[in-house]
Amino acid sequence: MGERFFGVIAEAYKAWNTELVGFLNRQLKRSPDTARDLAQETFAKWLAASHSAEPPEKPRAYLYEIARNLLRDHWRREGVRGCLLYTSDAADEGLGVD
To answer: What is the full DSSP assignment across 50-79?
Structure first.
């Protein structure tokens, strides 16, 4: 099962990595480095799951599902950081925000 699944992932990488990076880059409003990082993480997560599952019936859809979940995680992390930075900056300027 693992070898066959690895072959599916390798073929998916060849076929869809460039497309996936483009999708992520557009979603991230033109952040190519982050898009490449998230695409790499997408394939890594798929590979990690390959040891305990069968290859998906629709590999491209599965790939994009992983990528969208990683995007949501990224946006959550960035949103929290932005709030913390804003709060910290406001407190430093004496605006009464703790």
So the answer is: TTSSPPPSSHHHHHHHHHHHHHHHHHHHHH
Q: Residue 94 carries which DSSP code?
A: T
**What's the CA gap between 45 and 43, in Å, rounded?**
5
pLDDT one digit per residue (tens) for the chain, 98 residues: 456 667 888 899 999 999 999 999 999 998 899 999 999 999 999 988 877 777 788 989 999 999 999 999 999 988 855 444 444 444 444 444 44
Which one-letter amino acid corresponds to residue 68? R
Residue in the structure block whose two tokens are 């690895």: 6
Beta carbons of 25 and 35 less than 8 angstroms apart: yes
Cβ-proximal residues to 2 (8 Å cutoff; 6+ apart), any chain: 50, 51
Q: How much is the pTM?
A: 0.73
Distance CA 34, CA 51 (A): 27
Residue entry with tokens 């991230």: 28
